[in-house]
């Protein structure tokens, strides 16, 4: 029910395009509240880790590699593919992408959903080979759910735009989920998510 409400929030800007940022903020605040409710109220624990140098030591390399990958993808797109934003919208978008999106989506999709799926013995113990790595089946399932959530953009954008975004989100979910399984640090996944979104939104506007 909670995830369904988050999807509904995500669809509402279709009829209120001028206030899309309000619904985007509400969607991600709701996602974060769902995860925190399970973590703090229901006491269903999932690894969070520490926001410290030692706690995130295993994440630094993937941050750099992923930021470079996103930058290459941005530069490979035609210039008209990037929207022109006002100064106010730009500031709000960059703040939103750089602070709220990462923790809200990662606490829900990686922390809550991925951990829950991997706690099922059959899903958690089964691993499948992907790009010379063995990934837990629950991690793949959480990445798939994460990718499918991005298909809600079909009511606002054409399939040619939304489908690559959903596929990219699925790949991101595999990468972030695999590192989360190895490090148990959700802050590292959140920062990786923020870096990815910030580069994708901010880089085209600089060049």
Structure description:
- This protein is mostly helical and 207 residues long.
- The chain is built from eight helices and two strands.
- Strands 1-2 form a two-stranded antiparallel ribbon.
- Helix 1 (2-11) runs antiparallel to helix 2 (20-41) and helix 4 (87-119) runs antiparallel to helix 8.
- The longest helix is centred in the middle third of the chain and has 33 residues, at 87-119.
- The N and C termini lie far apart (42 Å).
Q: Total domains, how many?
A: 1
Q: Helix fraction? A: over 70%
Task: Report the mean per-residue pLDDT as an integer.
Answer: 79
Strand-pairing-aware structural class: mainly alpha
Q: What is the end-to-end distance?
A: 42 Å
Proportion of residues in β-strands: under 5%
- Helix and strand string, N-terminal first? HHHHHEEHHH
Could you name the ranges where pLDDT drops below 50 across 5 or more consecutive residues? 1-18
Q: Strand sequence of the main sheet, in spatial order?
A: 1-2
Profile the largest sheet: 2 strands, antiparallel
User: Shape from CA axes?
Assistant: globular
Radius of gyration, in Å, reads 17 Å
Short account of what is shown:
The protein has one domain (2-206). Mean pLDDT is 79; it is low at 1-18. The chain contains 8 helices and 2 strands, in the order H-H-H-H-H-E-E-H-H-H.
Q: Can you lay out the helices and strands and say which pair or pack?
A:
Layout: H1 2-11, H2 20-41, H3 60-76, H4 87-119, H5 121-125, E1 127-130, E2 133-136, H6 137-149, H7 159-183, H8 186-206
Features:
207 residues, mainly alpha, two-stranded antiparallel ribbon, disordered N terminus
């Amino acid at each position: 029910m909670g995830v369904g409400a988050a999807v509904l929030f995500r669809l509402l800007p279709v009829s209120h395009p001028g206030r899309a940022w309000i619904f985007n903020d509400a969607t991600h605040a709701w996602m974060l509240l769902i995860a925190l409710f399970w973590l703090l109220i229901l006491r269903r624990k999932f690894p969070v880790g520490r926001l410290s140098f030692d706690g995130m030591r295993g994440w630094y390399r993937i941050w750099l590699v992923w930021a470079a990958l996103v930058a290459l993808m941005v530069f490979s797109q035609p210039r008209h593919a990037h929207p022109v934003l006002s100064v106010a919208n730009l500031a709000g978008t960059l703040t939103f992408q750089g602070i709220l999106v990462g923790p809200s989506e990662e606490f829900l999709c990686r922390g809550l959903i991925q951990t829950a799926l991997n706690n099922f013995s059959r899903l958690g113990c089964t691993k499948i080979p992907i790009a010379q790595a063995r990934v837990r089946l629950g991690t793949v399932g959480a990445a798939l759910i994460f990718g499918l959530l991005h298909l809600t953009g079909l009511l606002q954008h054409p399939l040619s735009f939304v489908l690559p975004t959903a596929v990219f989100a699925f790949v991101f979910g595999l990468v972030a989920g695999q590192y989360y399984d190895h490090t148990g640090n959700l802050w590292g996944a959140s920062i990786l998510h923020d870096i990815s979104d910030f580069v994708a939104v901010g880089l085209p506007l600089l060049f």
